[in-house]
Specification:
Largest sheet: 3 strands, antiparallel
Strand order of the largest sheet: 4-3-5
Helix content: 40-55%
Number of domains: 1
CATH class: Alpha Beta
Number of helices: 4
CATH topology: Ribosomal Protein L30, Chain: A
Length: 101
């Protein structure tokens, strides 16, 4: 995306940013990691309960956690992902957040 530049009366160039960039709201993801404690059924249950995912989606994400070692289960602002990570940890899952790729 190209940025438009305006020339205000004072002679200083101003680069316009998208609202997201201006507010520092670049997307982040909540990652859930595989662990040796929680069962696959329990992880599926958590995804269905907290995120309200349909069973098929919850199972797909659970299998991604199990087979690939992690899954990005949600995406949003940093504040939203901090909330989701805290919730996942409250359910006993291993979860972290990072900027979306």
């Amino acid at each position: 995306m190209q940025h438009m530049t305006e020339q205000p009366a004072g002679g200083t160039a101003v680069v316009e940013r998208t609202d997201e960039q201006a507010l520092g709201q670049e997307p982040w993801v909540c990652l859930v990691w595989n662990d040796p404690v929680n069962t696959m059924d329990y992880v599926t249950y958590v995804f269905m309960t907290y995120f309200r995912f349909p069973k098929a989606k919850a199972e797909r994400l659970m299998l991604e956690v199990h087979n690939d070692g992690r899954s990005a289960v949600s995406m949003g602002t940093k504040d939203e992902m901090e909330r989701d990570v805290t919730a996942m940890q409250g359910y006993g899952l291993w979860a972290t957040l990072e900027p979306a790729a």
